[in-house]
């Protein structure tokens, strides 16, 4: 199908997936309020457009860690992504490479990081869950550097695996090939600032800390030499009852004060959402369910198509705001309001509720 909207891609994703896999994709922890807050937060900003600016050319090109990005977007780590489309992380890698954005590869999906580096060479970040002791981690970081990864990412919001009731009530185990339970995450729970200091002192690879949820931790990351601060609540899949990530972003950006790039994800589903994140100071915006839905709708070609549609949305939004370059986006282009629609994981696609 020749997709023209992200709504169509989302609709097809749902048609393609079994209920178990669909719930794994859209679901979150406990009451799923963190998911709803992410969307509520994104919907709580409106634009203050400027008129009569020349926007005959608009660019959203930028760079992250020296890697040029056609759009200020990263495709976040998605565990078990192969359950959405059999090519798994390789399909995402090919689409990201062809389009020109960075993929962050999850350590709990296929293909593994070394195979993928050979199959689809190019800039990429590797995200690790600690499933072993320090020697195990050190070995993996060394191999990650050897395989040519751009940066190494530790996810810090997953001290243990959360309670995802959609999965639990159906006795469904996400299909990464390994059952992920509290015991498996024993090593994740041992991760501390010392782990960060250890990595920074021993290895020469940019370090991303994903899961930052307040200014205090962002400041500490920068003090420890972290190279990228990544604001995230895991798409509402870990701790329930968190703030919306877009609401955390301004205080983190202020704390980091331009010393390192800041990434954000959580509830960003469309071009206008991305522009809001950029206005509030993100260097790039992560879009996990966007990536997963496109994979479920048809793998690599649909991920590529989704990125093209997203780019069109971003550039259209910028032109209508009177901004011709992403570097000119700033918080003064936004104002906080009460959202017009109830927030939920797919509330970015209201036409689907009308049966389109
Ligand atoms: C199906 C699924 C699997 C995920 N697996 C991982 C993972 O393996 N590692 C990780 O750090 N985050 C993981 N996440 C979180 C994403 O990287 C990202 O933080 C989140 O999806 C952002 O929110 P969004 O889906 O609203 O864009 C996963 C998210 C989803 C939806």
How is the topology of this model organized?
Blueprint: H1 6-16, H2 19-26, H3 33-43, E1 45-47, E2 62-64, E3 67-69, E4 73-75, H4 89-99, E5 102-105, H5 113-119, E6 125-128, H6 134-146, E7 151-155, H7 165-169, H8 193-202, E8 207-212, H9 215-223, E9 228-231, H10 245-256, E10 262-265, H11 271-279, E11 284-286, H12 288-298, H13 300-321, E12 334-336, H14 350-353
Parallel strand pairs: 4-5, 4-11, 5-6, 6-7, 7-8, 8-9, 9-10, 10-11
Antiparallel strand pairs: 1-12, 2-3
Helix pairs in contact: 1-12, 4-13, 9-10, 11-13, 12-13
Bound molecules: flavin mononucleotide.
Flavin mononucleotide binds at residues 24-25, 38, 76-79, 106, 108, 127, 155, 210, 232, 234-235, 237, 265-268, 286-289, 292.
Features:
356 residues; binds flavin mononucleotide; eight-stranded parallel beta barrel; 14 helices; 12 strands; alpha/beta; single chain; globular; TIM Barrel; two-stranded antiparallel sheet; 13% strand
Structural overview:
It contains 14 helices and 12 strands. It has helices at 6-16, 19-26, 33-43, 89-99, 113-119, 134-146, 165-169, 193-202, 215-223, 245-256, 271-279, 288-298, 300-321, 350-353; strands spanning 45-47, 62-64, 67-69, 73-75, 102-105, 125-128, 151-155, 207-212, 228-231, 262-265, 284-286, 334-336. Helix content is 40%, strand content 13%. The radius of gyration is 19 Å and the shape is globular. The chain has one domain (6-345): TIM Barrel. Helix 11 crosses helix 13 (300-321). Helix 5 links the parallel strand 5 and strand 6 (125-128). Flavin mononucleotide binds at residues 24-25, 38, 76-79, 106, 108, 127, 155, 210, 232, 234-235, 237, 265-268, 286-289, 292. Flavin mononucleotide (FMN) binds at residues 24-25, 38, 76-79, 106, 108, 127, 155, 210, 232, 234-235, 237, 265-268, 286-289, 292.
